[in-house]
Every structure is written in structure tokens, then in C-alpha cells.
Amino acid sequence: MNASFIDMSAHAGSSLDSLNEWVAQVAALTRPGAVHWCDGSDAENDALTAAMQADGTLIKLNEKTHPGCWLHRSDPEDVARVEHLTFVCTTDRDDAGPNNHWMAPTDAHAKMDALFEGCMRGRTMYVIPYCMGPIDSPLSRCGVEITDSPYVVANMRIMTRMGAPALARIEREGHFVKGLHSTGELDPDRRFIMHFPEELAIKSYGSGYGGNALLGKKCHALRIASHQARTEGWLAEHMLILGLKNPQGETHYIAAAFPSACGKTNLAMLIPPEGYLKDGWRVTTVGDDICWMRPGSDGRLYAINPEAGFFGVAPGTSKKSNPNALASIQSNTIFTNVGLTADNQPWWEGLDEGEPVTDWRAEPYDPAKRPAAHPNSRFTVSARQCPSYSPESENPAGVPISAIVFGGRRPSLVPLVFEARDWTHGVLIGAAMGSETTAAATGAVGVMRRDPMAMKPFCGYNFADYFSHWLDFDNGSNKLPKVFHVNWFRRGEAGDFLWPGFGENLRVLEWMIGRVKGTAGAVETPIGNLPAASELNLAGVDLSAEAMEKLFGFDQTGWRQEFASIGEYLEEYGPRMPQALKDEQRRIAAQLEG
Ligand code: SAT
Ligand code: MN
Description:
Elements (H helix, E strand, L loop, with lengths): L16 H14 L3 E4 L4 H13 L4 E2 L9 E3 L13 E3 L4 H4 L4 E2 L2 H12 L7 E9 L8 E7 L2 H10 L1 E2 L1 H10 L3 E6 L9 E5 L4 E5 L4 H4 L2 H17 L2 E3 L1 E7 L5 E7 L6 H5 L5 H6 L2 E6 L3 E5 L5 E4 L4 E5 L9 H6 L5 E3 L2 E3 L4 E2 L8 E3 L19 E5 L16 E9 L9 E3 L3 H9 L2 E3 L11 E3 L12 H10 L9 E5 L18 H13 L4 E4 L2 E4 L13 H8 L3 H16 L7 H15 L1
Parallel strand pairs: 1-6, 3-19, 4-5, 4-10, 7-9, 9-11, 14-24, 24-28
Antiparallel strand pairs: 2-3, 6-7, 6-8, 10-11, 12-16, 13-14, 13-15, 16-17, 17-24, 18-23, 19-23, 20-21, 20-22, 25-28, 26-27, 29-30
The protein binds sulfoacetic acid and manganese (II) ion.
């Protein structure tokens, strides 16, 4: 590792002055024993990995079955995002909005700098230049994360384009997002994730967990980027991107927003049901979590995946639910907080093969005590290892989006799929999204909350302004995608899921593309267009009468209540909430009265 140490002075005099200056300031504050500039090379990664194996940060998994795979066990109190400790620090509190925790930037800097003071003594400070998106794409944006966690370095290497090419782009552009991170003492009482959108800066202290510590991901690519996107005329969204190829050989790209741990990875890697496969239908994966979109010269929205890897939820991933993900994570993967089999293979609930002997806390597995894998245990793997990986992921121009899909976990009321009448209605559908909470964040699981566009934890500014920004894309010249809402999680009276999901979701995507092309029919209702009974191919799917009614029906009384609640929600944002959205809510509420 010493060989790849670069003296900070190596960059002096170049256009990296501001980067050098910032690194020097951070070093003066945090007092590391050494500074390492990451170049992203294999040699650097090998050296770091060996050091982490030696000190127990990484545990080698079965090299025969899982070559190049590692297990990391995090602190048991540090296993998920911490929304209550995540702040957006804007000069004006209203710019952060009721959707964010807020602190004045000067107070936040003072609080964080006190925590960072001397925190890297005796440790190595890593400087990670990274690019979110293909290195040559005008849609991509760069950042630098400074961290004292080698685990973060190893994950950032998989999740972003990290190292020398990113540093070269930063040198060319002269600007970047500044992210400062330390695991600190991992004390939940000394843990904060602070964002300074006006300064394009992030400070994160006290957690080593993914969304809190891999600053390129949620902190940069969503919270800071959503702010940048608003000022620059694009969108930074919590969406997967998939390519859907039909038997005629046409590929349509779909972007879909679901809250964390609601199946984005599964949908992005979907394998069509047998008959569809025979006919030539294919799904290719561009991204599973984040989507940056901007109008191209033809007025269509073009999207890139700013990430280079997947940070997916392990539990529930199986040959049945997501064979592509399972195939991806057989090698060169970092597992975090999963269980182990007797022969050192990774194991989690829902894997459907093998037996755990050790749980994620390194104790003998006892189902009465705790699950083998933490419900939010994760795998980190390069996107290129996915059998459905789309080479279009590297296209600097991005891919044209034909449809945008919103969805959440809704056990009742919400049908399988419906289509927005137009863009404004689509924005309302996104703004009104609700979902049950999951283990991806600390706090109660299974509680219904509004999670507009799956961005509740990730929008770096006031939701009212965010909805205005979305509405502004309908400017008369853009050719915007059609907008849909799906609900894979509708339950019956007995509590069972009514829709089989997974591969069968392709049937719903097929209907959407039929709508985009004008070949599929729909029934108009006040909440939007539902598939006419004969228009969604259900051949070979066994659905009960209850399922048919609940998945494809429209419950006027239930929706009347839902729209009253949506109206109240919009009012919470006061006068900043765009009138057009309130009018749309009122128009539909009035129709529901009829
Ligand atoms: O923890 S992450 O934010 O990286 C993953 C997620 O919750 O979506
Ligand atoms: Mn996510």
C-alpha cells in the first residue's frame, strides 16, 4: 500500500488547488497518522483488503464457492440509515422544507467540526475522488469523499467510478462535491449526517453503514444532486432504470421509484415468465436505485445510472425471487451483516438453500434469538457482474425514458396498476405516494407514511419546490414519458399477497408499453386509467376472484378518503405548494364525490 501513497504536494500548482487546500484543512482538523489518495487500482484494493482481513474488518468467505467474497460485520447499533440524525442545512429553513430535519449551516458546521476534531489520530485518512455516472457523460458529476474507513473505500470502489479517471475529470472541471466522513466512535449519540446543498458539501460522523457513509450514494447522488438538478434543469431520482425488449426487437426504458427495500433491485433484474422468454422478451438492467434524467435535444428525458454497482438487500434474494442478483454475487462481493453456513458461505433468510450456523453478530444461530442475517443486510457488487447488465449503462448520452413508474407497499385500496392522465396528474400520483416503512432505516417497520416519489428520506430541498420543479418539465416542447403507479403488495382478507410478483410483473410492464405505443386499452376512472380486463395478459396466472376484484377494481369510497388525506398532506407545505398540484387534487376529489 505504501507504494500508492501519494504525497499531497504532488498535486500542488495544478487546477486541483482547491482540492489540495481542502484536504490539507481536513487533515489539520482531523489529525490523521497518514493520508492516502485513492487511485482505484487493483493493487491498492488488494493491499486495503489484506489489511482489513488482518484486523478482522473483513472475513474471507468460502473461496471455492464464493471467490473474492468478504463478510463485514458492522457495529450492531449501526445497521441502517438514520433519518432522525440526517439534516439538510440551508441558510433559509424553508428551503429545506417540512420534509427535512434542518439546522443552520453555521451551527451544523460548528457541531460537526467539534466531532471531527482530532478524530483520525493514529488512523489513515483516505481521499477518494469519484465520478457519479459514466466518466465521459455530460450528465455525470464528480465528488471527493474523505474518510477514515477502508471499508468505505472498498465499497466506493464498487459503487462509483473511483480513482485516477475521476481525479482527472475533477482537474478538468475544477469543481466537485466535498464529502467528509469519519466512523468516529460509532456512538449513536454522536452520529449526524449533514448536508450543505448551497456549498455542495456533506459531513457525516459516527456511522459506517452504507447510506450514511458511502457519501456518493444517497448523500451526493440524491440529496445534493436533487438540489443541483433543480438549479440546472434536471432530475435526480430514487429510481431503477430497466430496458424492456419486445419480440419485435424494440427496447423501451422504464424508470421506477419505490422506497428502499421494496423490490427495486428485483424489478430491475426481472426475468420474464417462460412464455414471454420464448417469445423473445428480455429485461436489461441499467440501474437499481438512482436515476439522473434530463431532457435531450429531442425533448425526451434521457437517464443515466450514476452508480457503478449494486448495494442490494440480501434477505429474500433467491433463485426464485432474483436469479440475476444471485448470479451476480457469487464472486467479488462484499456482504455486510449476513449469516454464515458451516463451510463459510454467506446465508440469509429467504435464500432457500444451505443452513446457517453463525448469525450476523457472530453468535451461534438461534432462530429464537434473532434472524441469521440482519433484515437490512446487504451485498455490494459491481453492476458488470449482473447477467442482465445493460451495456447502455455506459452510454454517455443516457437512455431515453418511455415510462415513469411510482409504487409503494400498499396492503389495501391501491390496485395493481393505473396510468396518469397527463404529466400534472402523474406528478400528483408521485407526490401522493404512500408506503409501509421497511428495515432500510432505523425505526418501526410496517408503518404507513407518505413517501413522495420514494424521495422522503432523500430530497435535498423543500418538497413543495421539488413538485414545482417536476411540473416545470411540462413546458410544451418536452416529450415526456407516460406516468404509472403500481402496487405489487396488495393483500387479501387473509393477509396473503394477491399478486405473484417477481417475473410476472413483466405483464404489467407490457401493458405500460402498450399504452405508450397506443396499442393497449384502458378504463378511465377518477384516479387514472386502469387496464381493461382483457388488456393485461393473465394467461397462466392463477388469480382468485378476490384477487381479480382487488387488483383491478376501484373502490370509490376508499379513494374518497385517500384523496381527503392527500389534500391534507399537500396543505402541510403551505403556500409554497404549487397551485396546479392542489387544483389537480381538488379536481379528482370532486370527481370522487360524484
Ligand atoms: O442505505 S442505503 O441508503 O444506501 C440503501 C437504501 O436504504 O436504499
Ligand atoms: Mn435506495
